[in-house]
Amino acid sequence: MESIQATKQRFGIIGNDPTLNRAIEKAIQVAPTDISVLVTGESGVGKESIPKIIHSLSHRKHGKYIAVNCGAIPEGTIDSELFGHEKGAFTGATATRNGYFEVADGGTIFLDEVGELPLTTQVRLLRVLENGEFLKVGSSKVQKTDVRIVAATNVNMFDAIKKEKFREDLYYRLSTIEINLPALRERKEDIHLLFRKFASDFALKYKMPTIKLTEDAIPVLLKFRWSGNIRQLRNVAEQISVLEQNRTITAEVLQGYLPTGSSNLPAVIKNTKAESDFSNEREILYKVLFDMKADLNDLKKLTMELMKNGNATEVQEKNEGLIQKIYGNEEDTDYEEEEKEELKVLAISQNANPENLQNTSDKYHFAEEIEEEETLSLHDKELELIKKSLERHQGKRKLAAAELGISERTLYRKIKQFDL
Fold first, then answer.
1. In this structure, are residues 37 and 63 in contact, taking their beta carbons and an 8 Å threshold?
2. Of 297, 213, 301, 291, which Cα lies nearest the Cα of 257?
3. Coil, strand, or helix at residue 37?
4. 151-198 pLDDT, tens digit each
5. Do residues 360 and 344 lie in contact, with contact meaning Cβ atoms separated by under 8 Å?
6. Count of CB atoms within 10 A of residue 81's CB?
7. Across 10-14, 106-110, 412-416, least confident range
8. What are the pLDDT digits (tens) for 91-120?
9. Ramachandran region of residue 44, left (φ > 0), alpha (ψ -120 to 50) or beta?
10. Rounded to an integer, what distance in angstroms lies between the CA atom of residue 403 and that of residue 406?
11. Most buried residue, 103, 285, 416, 420, by most Cβ within 10 Å?
12. What is the tally of helices (H) and strands (E) in the chain?
């Protein structure tokens, strides 16, 4: 069995992190078998190296090795790419085509970003893993293939299964052996080592002196989060190698090449929603409408009590809690005075004192003033007010009642009484 150090030199893997060494050791151990392997880890950690190690150390090393980026193939054509198609199977299929599983028979297929596969393709892949059988698109003939499958993903597979984006049975078939590669920020001791390797490679590539970090720049390099992992570190090393005239890189210069938008602090996400926390405007609108409906029902109840009883003081004492709920504790609102004036309008009769009606003129400022020398009776005055209000609102009783300060039911009774 090949040693870990020899394997790292052979495939250009840099680093001495124990977690990385364990991942390489598992790849070496599983290579001679035909077990399916799932490689997990963040984007940019170098997952593509593991399938190469497995294939080169297996008995299939003389067979074909095909790497397929599942996330880069459109959903409509991925079945054709993987399993092939017959002539005329769909528009544009002018000839029969062999898919990757047929071409790689006896070899290894690396399915990168396997978490992006459509559900229909996942069913086909599950059949290949179970018995090596597949159908070309547009064909009814079952074909056999002998292919070793190594898959990789940066997706949290359990979340994908929970959201029904990935089949649970396929996950367990793929992850017979699972190899996890650590993120670069978890390999602090390897960061400077990798940077020096990249700087040396780019110096050779662009035929220029190698860049070197000063002592104060190294801590800056190690403390950075490196969300893009090895790929991001490589890009930063290349930028500095090409753009900097001075080959000695200080902390200030290095800081200028590191993105400032990312934070090293973890994000705190609130999973539970408080009762008073509205997630959208619709919920706020619903609450306002329900509150208005409740207030309207309370007002109806209070108005009915006033119409039946006619005694404002008694109604106020009996419904003190309801009045408090509707009007609150506003200091500028004199409830008793307003209630008395409202009762004066509701209880208008022919025996009423004309002076009482005069006292309400301030509240109903929209009504025309009636001069004292007019000889109209109270009955005629009330009739005149109702007629003018109905004319202003084109006969709409609801608006007229609101203007007069009485209920629509009371207005209807008076219209019948006056025979309007």
1. no
2. 213
3. strand
4. 999 999 999 999 999 999 999 999 999 999 999 999 999 999 999 999
5. yes
6. 18
7. 412-416
8. 888 899 999 999 999 999 999 999 999 999
9. left
10. 8
11. 103
12. 20, 9
For residues 101 and 176, give the distance between their C-alpha atoms in angstroms, rounded to a whole number: 20
Tokens linked to 89 = 């199977």
* CA-closest candidate to residue 147, choices 175, 107, 174: 107
Classify residue 332 by burial, with Cβ atoms within 10 Å: 0-12, 13-18, 19+.
Answer: exposed
Write down the pLDDT at residue 350.
43
Give the Cα separation of 211 and 205 in Å (integer).
13
Q: What percent of the chain is helix, strand and coil (3-state, nearest 5)?
A: 50, 10, 40
CB 122 within 8 A of CB 170: yes
Amino acid occupying residue 387: K
Taking 90 as the threshold, does the pLDDT of residue 53 lie above it?
yes
DSSP string, 388-401: HHHHHTTT-HHHHH
Structure tokens at 242: 């090409």
Place of tokens 């509240």: 363
Gap between the Cα atoms of 263 and 202, Å rounded: 29
Tokens of 357: 């009606």
Gyration radius of the chain's alpha carbons = 41
